[in-house]
Specification:
single chain, alpha+beta, Immunoglobulin-like, 3 domains, five-stranded mixed sheet, 5 helices, elongated
Length: 309
C-alpha cells in the first residue's frame, strides 16, 4: 500500500495496462471460442450461415438514410457450406434486435424454420425514426439470429446508419436549331417539413412519404418539400403555359413583362412533391441558340429553390 501511495502515477499506468490486457484476452478468447465451435458444428455437417451475419458479429456503415422515412434492412440465412454441402435437417432459429430509443425497430418475423430443401431464408429489420434526424446523425442497430435445433449457433450484425439529406438539382436540355428547350427539375428530397402546426404535428416536424399520402388538401398546404421560383427574360424564351406546374402556381412571386403591348410571364413559383421529377418546355425566340445547362453558359432561366430542412 505504501508503494501505491508513493507511486500513484506508476500504479495507475499498471492498472490501466492490466485492465486492457484482461479485456483483450477475454475478447480474443471469445473470438477463438466461436471459431472452434463453428468448426465442430461443421464437422457434424451442420451449416448455418449468412452473407451478412457473422459468428463474431459483422459491422456495416451506411450513409444513405434520409432520417425521415423507414429504412429496411434485409438479412439472409442459409444452410449451406458450398454448392455441394448443406444441412439435411430443418434448422429452427429465433431472431432478435437491439435499437436505441430514438428509433423503432420491427422485425418481419421473430423466428422461423429453415427447411432442409429450401436452403435459404430471410427477414427484414425495419428502422423507423421517432424524432427528427439531421445530416450527420447516426443510429446503431444490431440483429442476432440463434439456432436452437438441431444445434445451437449464434450470428449477428451491427449497422451504423447515417443520415445524408438528398437535395435538389436541375438541368436544361437544348440544341442548335431546336425550337424549344426543356427545363428538368429533380427533387431528391424524400420528406416534407411542417410549416404550420396542425393535428399532432408542429412546425419543423418532418413528414414521411407515407404520412403525406394520408393528409388532406388543406393539411398538404401546410407542409413543404421544395418550393421553386423560375425567372427569365421572355424576349428570349417563352413559357409553355399549359404546363401543370404553371397552372398550379403559387400566388406569390408572380411577375409579367410587357413586350409590344402584350403581357408575358417572366417569373412564377410552385411547389414540387418529394422524390419527384418534372419538366417544363420553353419556346426559344432564336432557334440557333443553344441554352444547354450545365455548360459554359449562364443559365437562361434562373432557378431558385427553398427546400425542407
Amino acid at each position: 500500500m505504501k508503494f501505491v501511495r508513493d507511486h500513484k502515477l506508476v500504479s495507475i499506468i499498471v492498472l490501466c495496462v492490466s485492465s486492457l490486457f484482461l479485456f483483450v484476452t477475454v475478447a480474443f478468447g471469445r473470438y477463438i471460442k466461436n471459431i472452434i465451435n463453428n468448426y465442430l458444428l461443421e464437422a457434424k455437417a451442420f451449416y448455418f450461415n449468412s452473407t451478412v451475419l457473422g459468428i463474431n458479429g459483422k459491422n456495416y456503415s451506411i450513409v444513405n438514410w434520409d432520417g425521415v422515412n423507414s429504412y429496411p434492412l434485409t438479412i439472409d440465412v442459409n444452410n449451406r457450406k458450398n454448392a455441394l454441402r448443406h444441412t439435411d435437417a430443418d434448422i429452427v432459429y429465433t431472431i432478435t434486435k437491439s435499437c436505441p430509443a430514438t428509433v423503432a425497430c420491427t422485425l418481419s418475423k421473430t423466428g422461423a424454420t429453415l427447411r432442409a430443401n429450401d436452403e435459404t431464408d430471410s427477414y427484414v429489420l425495419t428502422v423507423t425514426p421517432l424524432q427528427n434526424f439531421y445530416e450527420g446523425d447516426t443510429v446503431t442497430v444490431t440483429t442476432t439470429v440463434r439456432s436452437s435445433s438441431p444445434y445451437e449457433k449464434e450470428m449477428s450484425a451491427t449497422y451504423t446508419i447515417g443520415v445524408q439529406k438528398a437535395n435538389f438539382s436541375y438541368n436544361i436540355e437544348d440544341s442548335v436549331n431546336s425550337k424549344y428547350l426543356t427545363l428538368n427539375l429533380i427533387n431528391s428530397i424524400t420528406f416534407y417539413e411542417v410549416l404550420q402546426d396542425f393535428g399532432s404535428y408542429t412546425a419543423g416536424d418532418h413528414i414521411s412519404l407515407d404520412e403525406y399520402a394520408l393528409l388532406n388538401s388543406s393539411e398538404r398546404a401546410k407542409v413543404l418539400s421544395a418550393e421553386v421560383t423560375l425567372q427569365y427574360d421572355p424576349h428570349y424564351v417563352l413559357l409553355d403555359m399549359t404546363n401543370p406546374l404553371y397552372l398550379n402556381r403559387l400566388s406569390t412571386n408572380y411577375q409579367e413583362t410587357t413586350i409590344n403591348n402584350f403581357q408575358y410571364v417572366s417569373r412564377f413559383s410552385f411547389r414540387l412533391n418529394a422524390a419527384s421529377s418534372n419538366s417544363i418546355i420553353f419556346y426559344k425566340d432564336d432557334p440557333t441558340e443553344d441554352y444547354t445547362y450545365p455548360s459554359s453558359n449562364t443559365p437562361i432561366i434562373t432557378v431558385s429553390v427553398n427546400t425542407a430542412n
